[in-house]
User: Fold this.
Amino acid sequence: MKIKICGLSRTEDIEAVNEALPDLIGFVFAEGSHRYVAPKEADFLRRELCKGISAAGVFVNEELDVILQLAGKGIIDMVQLHGSEDVQYVETLKRYCNAPVIKAISMTCDASSEELQRWEESNVDYLLLDSGTGGTGEQFDYRLIGRLTKPFFLAGGLNPGNVTEAAFQVLPYGVDMSSGVETEGKKDREKIKEAVRRIRNVERKIW
Assistant:
């Protein structure tokens, strides 16, 4: 099971994940977010990141050229879309970019079932099932997931105290944590380490 820690923006955050060793981290490039990191800062942080950890770029209705530039420079390995991007947007992106694409779906909106079906049939590589627009710190009703054939990341309100139960219940491709491993809005080294440790224990029990 893949472990992703999202919303890194400081050198201390990089030091924490380099110690805990999740599989992926996320840089948020949406300027409205308090976790926003500028491309120049992300470039610096990426250079400090352990080579065994991949980096995803989180975007909200971003211009394709911006994404292509960040991927082309090797600042990000994956593209995570959290806006109202449509299937055509993704098809165009994948035509010019080899990075895998993750599409976030709000599982608390009225059209979540239609969105799941639409993106299940698309050429995105992964889904990310979240509460609201992400970063809410709240879980959603996992019964809404149903049967999916496309690999997905489970997000929304996950923290060291509930991530193992959620993982056992849903068996996702990966889990994604952000606010759940923070203290007062900043990434917490000990929470990151504990969350990763607990998921690794789940992996050993399942496999």
Helices lie at 11-20, 39-48, 64-72, 87-96, 112-120, 163-170, 189-206. The chain has one domain: 2-206. The CA atoms of residues 3 and 22 lie 5 Å apart.
